[in-house]
Design a protein that fits this description.
Layout (H helix, E strand, L loop, with lengths): L2 H7 L1 H13 L9 H17 L10 H5 L7
Helix pairs in contact: 2-3
């Protein structure tokens, strides 16, 4: 199965682990920040077109980003 298909089939796993993958530094494992960011972007694009009726989760700290200037 291809990446797109696996992302959909394993959507529960992707959903649960996405915040960790998005924030974790994998450089110690030989994965560059650029490679991680590329993979995250691919997951996000696939999720958007999948028809899954809920968005990928964000960490709580993400919800507050940029809101301090809006107070």
């Amino acid at each position: 199965m291809d990446f797109s298909g696996e992302t959909y089939v394993q959507r529960r796993i992707v959903y649960c682990h996405y915040p960790f993958w998005r924030e974790h530094d994998f450089t110690g494992l030989g994965v560059t920040v650029e490679q991680r960011d590329d993979l995250i972007a691919r997951i996000e694009r696939r999720w958007e077109i999948s028809g899954i009726p809920f968005p990928l989760p964000r960490l709580c700290q993400d919800a507050g980003r940029g809101s301090a200037s809006n107070r």
